[in-house]
């Protein structure tokens, strides 16, 4: 079918051609203006509302449901497409023995004189400390035009392990760069290094372009299975996101993109499949198998990455099921001392991974809890972008909000949601079973200091709700509230995480109080108030066991992996030490899960 329907984006100065029957969301994606389809395009989250002019009439529609027509105008606002999110890139790096796998070696011109009737490559090989495999034809062809030139001072070889990956004229050993990339379901963080000096030169981040296909890994896997071009589209989205970060990095650092020779990546199992173009159907259904668990090495030209075509692209190994290379990277971020004693590690992002153990034995599991805490299923839920409520406190009967960007709120992100639930629990607005009081009930039962909060309890669409901001206080002139349905969604998410922790501890056979400490990694885990998370039973709390946030540990780990061959070897050893546990197969799972739906109220 010919693409002959013109869709205009006047505010961005773009026009695209679409097939009949395509959605506005698809047209936005074609124009490179990705919307945040939290529900995967099912029309249930309402996060993709756009203003349009259709046949001369202006209206607001859901972009994932409304079909295009010729001459359609889509009036996108900057905040709908700018995706300026609070993306966690901070990561403290435990020092490493700097020894990257990609190196450059300079050979002076006088050492290139090939003996009588001998071979140029064999002569070059003898000058190197290690044996290098015979180069591929394209590099031999490049050498044949270079080695005997008398107008050069020498040549520089770029090596990956025992392989030649490039040849430069003259001494370019200092022009050697690499990128360590943490590919999250929601966000992507990239760390650029000079691999000659070991210096980090820049940190870059963006929302994962795949959010236009759904908030969680399951919705993206379904998109691959249900659409003939689904896998290609999702792979293009993440490649495009990474290429944008590469372009930003080389531009800001004034670097030639052809001097980027190494990209190390981590991500969960679904992100690995979608980045590499591996069909993920069987990862998404029992028995949850990956195409490959080992580390994968490819070349940039195979993935259309905007760096040196022969650059090495190295994806870290997976653990099993949905516990992927990002969890390996989290473990790589820890020091040898931190791995000596038993620790419980929670990586709380869009998908939650849990690891328990020490250097001798570890158990790992995943929980599908993150989407609710990042917007999916929450009436006013949104990601941590400008306009999101990130902190909530109820003080003296007043509601105090902290909003990202210091402006009127548009919605509430995960950290604000956990605060709100914890504060409502403390104030008695919700009980331990998660039931929200009506205004009348609350007036009869609340403490005097909370009396003013009763005025914020309303029935909206016949559902009990607690109003955080009224129409005059919000950006879009509508009430922003937490509903009884939202509380239930939080209960489901927090029960999944808490149950995973407790079952892993049981399976390990460890007394909880013998855990050295609880470590919280990941974006969501970094921004939430840990005390509030433990108060509602999202994060376990054990007597005498401290809890601390370790930031973007996956980002720290993938950086260490890129900088040190010893760390790279450690990744392989760690993978063998970690046993994957499928929580749903545990006979106690359902009983524990339903028990943990209640709020714990522990300080």
Sequence stretches where pLDDT stays below 50 over 5 or more residues: none
What is the helix tally? 18
Count the E strands: 26
Apparent shape = globular
Strand content: 15-25%
Question: Order of strands across the biggest sheet?
Answer: 11-10-9-12-14-13
Q: Specify the biggest β-sheet.
A: 6 strands, mixed
* Rg, Å, rounded: 27 Å
Mean pLDDT: 91
Structural class based on helices, strands and sheet pairing: alpha/beta
Q: How helix-rich are the residues, as a percent range?
A: 25-40%
- What's the N-to-C terminus distance? 62 Å
Give the helices and strands, then pairings.
Blueprint: E1 5-9, E2 14-18, H1 24-30, E3 49-54, E4 57-62, E5 72-75, H2 78-81, E6 102-108, H3 120-127, H4 137-144, E7 154-160, E8 163-169, E9 177-183, E10 187-194, E11 199-207, H5 217-226, H6 230-252, E12 260-267, H7 269-276, E13 296-299, H8 300-303, E14 312-315, H9 325-332, E15 343-348, E16 352-357, E17 362-367, H10 370-373, E18 388-395, E19 398-403, E20 411-412, H11 414-426, H12 439-445, E21 457-460, E22 463-469, E23 480-483, H13 484-508, E24 517-521, H14 523-527, H15 530-535, E25 547-549, H16 553-563, H17 565-577, E26 578-580, H18 589-595
Parallel strand pairs: 1-5, 9-12, 12-14, 15-24, 17-26, 18-20, 24-25
Antiparallel strand pairs: 1-2, 3-4, 3-5, 6-7, 7-8, 9-10, 10-11, 13-14, 15-16, 16-17, 18-19, 21-22, 22-23
Characterization of this structure:
- The chain is an alpha/beta fold.
- Helix content is 28%, strand content 24%.
- A hairpin with a 3-residue loop joins strand 9 and strand 10.
- Helix 5 packs across helix 6 and helix 9 crosses helix 17.
């Amino acid at each position: 079918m010919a693409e002959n329907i013109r869709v205009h984006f006047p505010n961005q100065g773009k026009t695209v051609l679409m097939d009949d029957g395509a959605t506005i969301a698809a047209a936005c994606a074609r124009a490179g203006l990705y919307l945040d389809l939290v529900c995967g395009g099912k029309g249930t989250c309402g996060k993709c509302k756009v203003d349009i002019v259709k046949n001369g009439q202006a209206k607001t529609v859901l972009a994932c449901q409304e079909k295009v027509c010729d001459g359609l105008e889509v009036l996108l606002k900057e905040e709908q497409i700018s995706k300026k999110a609070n993306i966690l890139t901070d990561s403290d790096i435990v020092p490493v023995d700097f020894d990257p796998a990609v190196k450059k070696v300079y050979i002076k011109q006088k050492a290139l004189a090939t003996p009588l009737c001998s071979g140029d490559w064999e002569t070059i090989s003898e000058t190197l400390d290690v044996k290098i495999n015979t180069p591929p034809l394209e590099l031999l062809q490049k050498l044949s035009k270079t080695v005997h030139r008398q107008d050069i001072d020498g040549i520089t070889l770029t090596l990956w392990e025992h392989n030649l990956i490039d040849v430069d004229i003259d001494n370019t050993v200092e022009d050697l760069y690499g990128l360590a990339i943490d590919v999250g379901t929601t966000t992507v963080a990239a760390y650029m290094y000079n691999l000659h000096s070991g210096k980090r030169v820049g940190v870059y981040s963006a929302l994962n372009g795949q959010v236009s296909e759904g908030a969680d890994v399951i919705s993206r896997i379904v998109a691959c299975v249900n659409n003939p071009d689904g896998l290609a589209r999702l792979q293009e989205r993440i490649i495009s996101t990474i290429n944008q970060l590469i372009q930003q990095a080389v531009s800001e650092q004034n670097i030639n993109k052809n001097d980027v020779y190494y990209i190390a990546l981590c991500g969960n199992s679904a992100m690995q499949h979608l980045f590499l173009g591996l069909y993920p159907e069987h990862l998404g259904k029992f028995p949850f198998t990956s195409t490959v668990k080992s580390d994968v090495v490819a070349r940039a030209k195979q993935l259309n990455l905007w760096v040196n075509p022969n650059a090495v692209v190295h994806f870290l190994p997976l653990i099993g099921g949905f516990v992927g290379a990002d969890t390996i990277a989290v473990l790589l971020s820890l020091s040898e001392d931190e791995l000596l004693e038993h620790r419980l590690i929670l990586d709380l992002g869009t998908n939650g991974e849990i690891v328990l153990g020490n250097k001798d034995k570890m158990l790992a599991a995943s929980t599908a809890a993150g989407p609710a805490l990042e917007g999916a299923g929450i009436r006013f839920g949104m990601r941590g972008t400008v306009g999101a409520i990130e902190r909530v406190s109820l003080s003296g009967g007043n509601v105090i909000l902290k909003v990202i960007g210091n402006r009127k709120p548009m919605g509430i992100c995960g950290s604000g949601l956990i605060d709100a639930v914890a504060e409502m629990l403390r104030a008695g607005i919700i009980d331990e079973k998660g039931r929200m009081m009506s205004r009348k009930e609350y007036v009869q039962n609340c403490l005097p200091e909370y009396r003013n909060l009763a005025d914020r309890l309303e029935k909206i669409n016949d559902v009990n709700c607690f109003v955080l901001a009224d129409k005059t206080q919000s950006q879009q002139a509508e009430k922003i509230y937490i509903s009884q349905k939202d509380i239930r969604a939080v209960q489901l998410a927090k029960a999944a995480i808490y149950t995973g922790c407790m079952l892993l501890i049981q399976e390990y056979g460890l007394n909880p109080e013998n855990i050295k400490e609880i470590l919280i990694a990941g974006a969501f885990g970094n921004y939430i108030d840990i005390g509030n998370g433990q108060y509602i039973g999202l994060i376990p709390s054990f007597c005498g066991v401290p809890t601390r946030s370790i930031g973007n540990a996956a980002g720290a780990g993938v950086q260490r992996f890129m900088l040190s061959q010893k760390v790279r070897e450690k990744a392989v050893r760690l993978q063998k030490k970690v046993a994957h546990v499928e929580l749903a197969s545990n006979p106690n799972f359902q009983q524990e899960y339903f028990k943990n739906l209640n709020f714990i109220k522990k300080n």
